Amino acid sequence: MEHERSITLGSETDFDGWRKAARTLALHEVQPSAVTWRVGNNGPEPVGPSAAPLETPSNAISVPAKFVVLAQSAILHRDPLRFAILYRLLWRLRGHHDLLGVADDPDVSRVLAMAKAVHRDQHRMRASVRFREIGREQKSHYVAWFEPEYHIVEATAPFFASRFADIPWSILTPDLCAHWDGHAVAITPGIEVPGEDRLEQTWRRTYANIFNPARLKTALPR
Fold first, then answer.
1. In the chain, what percentage of residues exceed pLDDT 90?
2. How far apart are the first and last CA of the chain?
3. Which of 59, 89, 121 is the last residue of a domain?
4. End of a domain among 55, 87, 121?
5. What is residue 60's predicted lDDT score, i.e. its pLDDT?
6. Which of 51, 98, 107, 118 could make an SS bond with 3 (beta carbons 3.0 to 4.6 A apart)?
7. Domain containing residue 173
């Protein structure tokens, strides 16, 4: 009987980690039913004896390019089963390259629905974020509050970096915060809901922590 394998991803949006793990698992013929996916310390702890680590194969898996694009969006959803569903779909695509065209397939329809919901939330963010100027002249900063439905902040921030490249801005959310200084996007942890009338107060209170260099994760615009 095959030991169950537990895969721990670095974050809720760790697509690169998922892709590397999924490729290794598939090339070693590890059935989807034998894999448990976790994020950091979230999710169930492995039960029973653990399987020996798998070596990373040098060969590749042939899947439609559409699947990679679809997976990059679907992984931003909040469905806790998304990693497992995507791996199961990858597993099945190896022997059925036209599977993504079968719209009534349960796995395909679910992943398509997740990607569609994520795209809709990204559109909502791009359309509804409104910046408020805080401070004046050389010390002014533009701040907005947004509550995303899915894990879209880091993926959507480059849009604002391109559209508002000439002003320093921050988008604060409960999940993550995105900041633009004119050169690169920095990502910091989310903050508590400030309320519309407390946005400036919240911004000033958290400014020092937000711009602590040790907490910044920089991502260049895409």
1. 62
2. 45
3. 121
4. 121
5. 72
6. 51
7. 129-219
Pick from 151, 150, 149, 191: which is nearest to 170 by CA? 191
Is the same domain home to 9 and 109? yes
Q: How confident is the model at residue 197 (pLDDT cuts 50, 70, 90)?
A: low
pTM of the model: 0.84
List, as one string, the DSSP characters of 72-126.
HHHTTS--TTHHHHHHHHHHHHTT-TTGGG-TTSHHHHHHHHHHHHHHHHHHHHH
Contact 8, 70 (CB under 8 A): no
- Residue 103 clears pLDDT 50, i.e. is over it: yes
CATH number at residue 190: 3.30.1300
Residue 7 has pLDDT above 80, yes or no: yes
* Judgement on whether residues 37 and 18 belong to the same structural domain of the protein: yes
Q: Which of 8, 82, 87, 88 is nearest to 43 (CA)?
A: 8
Q: Are residues 113 and 134 in the same domain?
A: no
Does the pLDDT value for residue 222 go beyond 50? Answer: no
